[in-house]
Amino acid sequence: MAFDIDMIKAVYERYPERIAAARKIVNKPLTLSEKILYTHLWDGKAETVYERGKSYVNFAPDRVAMQDATAQMALLQFMQAGKDKVAVPSTAHADHLIQAKLGADKDLQESLNKNNEVFNFLSSVCNKYGIGFWKPGAGIIHQVVLENYAFPGGMMIGTDSHTVNAGGLGMVAIGVGGADAVDVMAGMPWELKFPKLIGVKLTGSLNGWTASKDVILKVAGILTVKGGTGAIVEYFGEGAKSLSATGKGTICNMGAEIGATTSTFGYDDSMRRYLKATDRADVVELADQVAEHLTGDDEVYAEPEKYFDQVIEINLSELMPHVNGPFTPDLATPIDKLGEVAKKEGWPLDIEWGLIGSCTNSSYEDLTRAASIAQQAVDKNLKTKSDFGINPGSEQVRFTAERDGLLKVFEDLDATIFTNACGPCIGQWDRAGADKQEKNTIIHSFNRNFSKRADGNPNTHAFVTSPELVAAMAIAGRLDFNPLTDTLKNEDGEDIKLDPPTGTELPEKGFDVEDNGYQEPAKDGSNVEVNVKEDSDRLQLLTPFEPWDGENITGMKLLIKAFGKCTTDHISMAGPWLRYRGHLDNISNNCLIGAVNAFGKATNEVVNQLTGEKGEVPATARAYKAAGIPTIVVGDHNYGEGSSREHAAMEPRHLGVMAVIVKSFARIHETNLKKQGMLGLTFANESDYDKIKEDDTFNFLDLNEFAPDKQITLEVVHSDGAKEELKLNHTYNAQQIEWFKAGSALNLIREKANA
């Protein structure tokens, strides 16, 4: 039986009347995305038409999911909200704090030794407030959610950008910061700008070496890392129906890499099969009763150009396997062109590591397809030229894969089976030799490949592809190997050509597991104690941010002017810094240390205008804060791209940054800044970015008139006394301005709870 079946039943019961109300108001056929959005309005049945990309709307998500690295801060904030129990079904998953080094058993035990204080905190908080807790080793949050919680037509939010993975089961699942999660867990509406809609029509069917991963790798190449910003990507067509549910999940998962709000697919037979295989036949029975509402209307898919803001069409039968990268997930190269491009660009051709796993590609089907390639290497006497690592997606997947002999195939090729956790995908990889920072190439089935992402080495060229292609290229050990056409020499000197991969959508004997790692919360948690030691360097109770005094903020200094790509990895690195995700002051020591300073092009080096000396970014920020001088950060396009981590907003806030002024924002990061009571502003004229000098002083001239749709004027005072006035845009509505006035959205929640 499914978790929270009564909640799912209630969602489906209100579908018919809410869809009818939406049809009456909108007066046109509906996409799947619109159906889910309109049935999850906070105020109930639709009474107005919302304008895509403009209208702010309050929604009522069905559930919340949090991973351990972000759950710490989210739950520390929830503890301040004055609530006894979460208002919607919620879960926390321990998957980020487990480092990959030696192998599953040793790495898991090492993590338990190092992170016991944090895991105990999460366990006790979850127990107290009615939150399900998935223990270390249980699996990667998004695979566990797909196996246990995702359901067609539902809406969920999660404190991880790859929450969107649940679109593989027909959800609208959206990555958010912890403050958003606190809103929903506290029983309050969740606000989102009504998304634009991008339709992707899939025709044909996958064949040969092409995998579901190649669909999103192709789409990323078309839309780039910001082409999906503010939009839901809805996949449809006969090609979409031909994909497995976990394949759909893979495609939705990497939608985060194009900036999409989320991605989703309509309810179909592959979802029915997956739900039944994961012991949720009861969900299928309920979903079938409202099946017509769990996919887009026929008219929409027949003439998509009328109903979507943008339409892309991909023929799966003609789609070529892709390899994306390095350093950005949207640099898409078909496999037949990769060798040529790699040589031209000077990318290292020898592949040192091949890695399979992450929330993007760690399903049973993924492992079977990769294992079919690995088995050929064993049978045909081929040796892998690259090191090889595997991260199963969940204990259920791992246990079943071991039972069915899949893991042994990889072990026969000397692969290391890591813990059911994120591991190298998020920088939790103790890779031997990475500290030497040598130029090298790795290939993986993950979703992101930003500089330093996997191993901390800025010279590691990381390439993203499907698990089966990872296996083939790890065996070959070369970036210019094309398994569709090339042969390999085996140990006997014979030329061997690999056959295309084969796989099994679902295990023939069914899924199995002895201990899935789930802790059910206490029915009454009132007596559960949550202790945070005052001298802990891992956990720190939060002190509310100060409210705004209503006056113009003046005398601000520039902390850093970021040059080029500045992702959340640049603003608040993961890897070894994950240990401080529950301690705001300690983790603030990584604030913006990866951002490239436009003045001098160095990282973690800025000029302290009080002393004239160069220093590290966090230390300089602390010096300004100690002197009572507010600061600003200036950035380029798509600032805050990547993870949902709200630490990238909380750290600058903690260190005295009052405003982040950029050419454009990534959606989640802009929201996180607003939630933490900061000013997220954009240049009305992008060229004004070039006018900002290292030693300028900044004054807001009309912030005291802060209002929706009203520009803000920034006075820039140069060191020679010359002054310029720059116009800044913002997207704050009346409610969000109240967050700023109160010092943070959480301050407002607490005020209302105490009223």
Fold and architecture overview:
- It is a single chain.
- The protein has 755 residues and is α/β, with parallel strands linked by helices.
- It has three domains: 5-315, Aconitase, domain 3 (2-Layer Sandwich); 322-427 and 437-482, Aconitase, domain 3 (2-Layer Sandwich), CATH 3.30.499; 556-754, Aconitase, domain 4, CATH 3.20.19.10.
- Strand 26 (657-662), helix 22 and strand 27 form a beta-alpha-beta unit.
- The radius of gyration is 25 Å and the shape is globular.
- The mean pLDDT is 96.
Rg measurement, Å? 25 Å
Strand order of the largest sheet: 22-25-26-27-30-29-28
Counted up, domains total 3
Which percent band covers the strand fraction? 15-25%
**Helix tally?**
24
Count of DSSP E strands?
Answer: 30
Arithmetic mean pLDDT: 96
In CATH terms, what is the fold-level topology of the largest domain? Aconitase, domain 3
Low confidence ranges: none
Find the CATH superfamily of the largest domain.
Aconitase, domain 3
3D shape: globular
Tell me about the largest β-sheet: 7 strands, mixed, barrel
Any chance you could write out the topology, listing elements then pairs?
Blueprint: H1 5-26, H2 32-39, E1 56-59, E2 63-67, H3 68-78, E3 90-93, H4 104-129, E4 132-134, H5 141-148, E5 155-158, E6 172-175, H6 178-185, E7 190-193, E8 196-203, H7 212-223, E9 231-236, H8 238-241, H9 245-253, E10 262-265, H10 269-277, H11 281-289, H12 298-302, E11 310-315, E12 322-324, E13 332-334, H13 335-345, E14 351-356, H14 364-379, E15 387-390, H15 395-403, H16 406-412, E16 416-417, E17 440-444, E18 460-464, H17 467-476, E19 488-489, E20 495-496, E21 518-519, E22 556-561, H18 568-571, H19 584-587, E23 606-607, E24 614-615, H20 617-626, E25 631-635, H21 647-654, E26 657-662, H22 667-675, E27 679-683, E28 697-700, E29 712-717, E30 723-729, H23 734-742, H24 745-754
Parallel strand pairs: 2-3, 2-5, 3-4, 5-6, 8-9, 8-11, 9-10, 14-15, 14-17, 15-16, 17-18, 22-25, 25-26, 26-27
Antiparallel strand pairs: 1-7, 4-21, 12-13, 19-20, 22-28, 23-24, 27-30, 28-29, 29-30
Helix pairs in contact: 1-11, 3-4, 3-6, 7-9, 10-11, 14-16, 14-17, 23-24
